[in-house]
Amino acid sequence: MTSTVPKHAGRYPEGRAAFPHKHLLGLAGLQPWEIYFLLDEAERWVDAARAGAIKSDALRGLTLINAFFENSTRTLLSFEIAGKRLGADVVNMAAAQSSIKKGETLIDTAVTLNAMRADAITIRHAMSGAVALIADKVDCPVLNAGDGWHEHPTQGLLDALTIRRRKGRIDGLVVTICGDIRHSRVARSNMIALATLGAEVRVAGPATLVPETVDAYGAARFTRIEPALEGADVVMMLRLQTERMDGGFFPSLREYHALFGLDAARLALAKSDALVMHPGPMNRGVEIDSAIADDPERSAITEQVEMGVAVRMACLDVLTRARRGVEGWA
Ligand code: NCD
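A: This is the predicted complex of the input protein with N-carbamoyl-L-aspartate.
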C-alpha cells in the first residue's frame, strides 16, 4: 500500500523543464510526465509525514495567501496545513469578511492581493475562469483551489495519487465517476488527468447531469450507473452540487438515491477489489451508503484527504522554486 520510490523518476526532464509553468490553473494541457512529476514530488511528502518528519523549512520567509471566495473545509484546511508544514507564513482570506461583499471588482481584489507581495496565492471562486483572471494580474504563482464548474487541479492530482498508491498504476485502469458531472470541477479535473494518464474513464449520472460533451475530455458517457460500474477498478462518487443548480435536474433525493446511489449490490458489479472514492463533502444515504464509505477495505476516502496535504505541499514547493532561486529552477 505504501510506496517509497517515485514511480516515474527518470521519465521527466531535470529541473524547471519538469514543470515549466508559473501557475497551476488546471490540468488541461499538461503532459503526462508533468502530472507524474507532481505525483512523485507529492509521494516524498507522504513518506516524510508518515515517517514523522512533518515539518520542512523549504518555504520559510515566504507568504502564502489563501483567498477563498467560496466555502471550503478540506481544501482550505489542507492548503493551510501544507503551507505551514513547508514553513511559510500563511494568511487565510475568507470571502464573508472580504470587500467582495462590498462590491469590489475581481480585478481590484487581484491588484490588492498583488500589492501585499505574496509569494503564492491559492484561490477558490464560484466563477469559472475567475482564478485565471486573477493570475493574469499578479506577479506570484497562483494555484486554482476550485473555480466554478471549471477545474480543481489539486483534487485531480490527489485523486490520481490515491489511485496510483492503492492500485500501483493508473494506465489501463477503468475508473467510473458517478453523480453530478455537469456541475463538478472535480469530475472535470479527474477526467482530464486520468485520461491523460491512460485510464479508461466512464462518467455516469442522470442524463440532465452528464453533458453530451464529456468525450472531449476522453470519457465515455453513461446515463445508468449499472453498466458504467461493470468491471470498474475505481468508483468515484460525487455530490449533487445543488447550490449550482438552477431548476430541476432530478425529481427527488430519494429517487436519485434509488437510481444512482452506491450500495453493496451495485458495487458488486465492479471488480471485487474496486476502490471507492469521494472528494467530500459526502451526502450519506444519497450518493453513497455509509456501510461502503466507512469500509476501510474498499474506501479510500480518508486517504484522499491525507494525499491532499501532500499534493498541495508538492505544488507549493514546485511553483515557488523559481522565486526561491532553487538550483535548476531559477
Ligand atoms: C469539491 C469542491 O469543492 O469542488 N470538494 C472538495 O474540494 N473536496 C466537491 C464538492 O463540493 O462537492
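The radius of gyration is 19 Å. The mean pLDDT is 93.
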